[in-house]
Amino acid sequence: MKILVPLKRVADPDNANKVKVAGTKLETTGLEWKPNPFDEYAVETALRLTENGAATKQRQGEVVVVSFGPKEVEATLRAALATGADRAIRVDVTDDKLDGDLVARALKAIVEKEKPDLVLCGKQAVDGDSNQVGQLIAEYLGWPQATFAGSIKSEGAPGKETALVVHREVDGGTINLKVTLPAVVSVDLRIVAPTSVKSVYTADGFKYPDGVRFAALMAIMAAKKKPLVEEKIETLAADTALKIEYLGFELPAARKAGVKVKDVAELVTRLKSEAKVL
Amino acid sequence: MTNILIVAELHEGKVRKSTHSSITFARQAGAAGGTFSIVVIGGGAAAAAAEVTGYGAAKVLAVEDPTATVCERIAPTVAALVKSGGFDVVAVTASSFGKDIAPRIAAKLGAGYAPDISGVKDDGGKLVYRRPVYAGNAYASCRLTTALQVVSVRQSEFTAAEPSGGASPVEAAQPAAPDAAAARVEFLGLEAAKSERPDLGEARVIVSGGRALKEKFAEVLDPLANLLNAAVGASRAACDAGYAPPELQVGQTGRVVAPQLYFAIGISGAIQHLAGMKGSKVIVAVNKDAEAPIFQVADYGLVADLFVAIPELVKQLQAG
Question: Which residues of A touch B296 (CB under 8 A)?
């Protein structure tokens, strides 16, 4: 199976409370670039779908990663190559000339050229929190979608996978879908749990370590030699006009610091007589 | 003049209350002149349509279609109705249903999409949307450059609409032909979490627990939740560790809630969790670590062993 995984770098999500507003722009100066966590999960999922969990050095199929941005995003792509992805594509463009819709339309052109069986993406990027690109690509391609995947099992014969059974994490439970390939799947947090992904190569009962894999030093060196090509946004999308226009930003009012109560009795009294919520 | 089509969320033959937040959005967006209609699509839509006729909609469209279980079958119908009905804004509440389908509708219509909005205002005939970014650590104001627009509405920021009286006419409408992709997706089923408790998005009180509760998650929290008729929530850490099911997760990437009263019990208060609950009216934190970041947003903090404090809290509340 050939899988295309779009990747985005985001300003350090664990320090998102340090963003500042400068004029009409949001400033993330001082925040380190990190891979979007959901995209890292998508890469891990792609690797698990294209290997026997007991012999992860041998890739069965191909994992291609793609990112949009200036030269510096190549670091994000190389990191994915180091964990096991085979090839990378960087679409040269600056962030201010992008929105989710343009990314999806450009990805459509890449998909038409690369012809993957599966586009696997994170359910949302934790900077804009839009949760849209997977669904947009699916519609633009006319492919079925399975969003917010908490587990995936591939069906068919090795090298001839035909469908995925996906458990989607939704409000109030789980929706189970079977999508026939080619399809678009977006992944949720629990996809990197030890038994969430089952490929046709991996024995039943196999357990991965929890979370995403780390690259060994040798693999980081080897990743520098893996193919990474550059594309131009203009050749991928005829129309580069954006559909969303950001006018300005503001920081939310900080919550007033509360009080520490000395015991349960004081808590109950205050909730009843002061906050009046009980 | 804004003409809005709300896509109702149907669940087991009933309109989900989340839909009422989209009605509130439509009332606000149309305040300067405009109308809104509601479309109910799915099995039992004809009966469910009657549930939303008292909210001031110009009309309620009922599309009886038992096969409409996936967005590849629902989105084409919405798009067709938008075109035939002359709507210019499509609104859906940003539940997992809304987040799944809204971009698909937008792409189908060539419309711009404003996801998970927390506010709307009419700026000289153009709608300006407000939306949280960076886990709610900043709010953006934005505009869509397209004539046709799709929005998803954050349930916790648009209070559920109350009935306004009147009786909107119900019109039956036909489902559109499904996408070709519909033949390649099979709905195997919904495994609904069985719970007698209110939904996280609708509860007046939420009792949330973190990893510190370990295997005693339910044992400690259930008595308090039962007593207060509260929904139960959880931190990501508690869900990942398997102490609570994933659908209970409150946070940036789980449910975003804003109840009257939120108990954070054994939750340290990572940025991602705060993003999902800091709009709550009153926050109570119980944690044995006095330095936990949750105390910076809590109205009332109690530094205590939760295995002692929570049963004691239940006991005192029961005593009246």
Answer: 255, 257
pLDDT tens-digit profile of B18-53? 999 999 999 999 988 889 999 999 999 999 999 999
Residues B10 and B106 placed together within one structural domain of the fold: yes
Q: Say yes or no: B104 and B17 in one domain.
A: yes
Instruction: Enumerate residues 107 to 126 of chain A having a beta carbon within 8 A of any beta carbon in chain B.
Output: 123-124, 126
> Closest partner residue to B133 among A129, A188, A277, by Cβ?
A129
- Indicate if B235 and B119 belong to the same structural domain: no
**How high is the mean pLDDT of chain A?**
96
ipTM entry? 0.96
pLDDT digit string, tens, across residues A14-50: 999 999 999 999 999 999 999 999 999 999 999 999 9
Q: Which domain holds residue B262?
A: 205-318
A132 closest CB neighbour out of B103, B108, B143? B103
Q: What distance in Å separates residue B168's CA from the closest CA in chain A?
A: 29
Beta pairing partners, B141? A248, B130
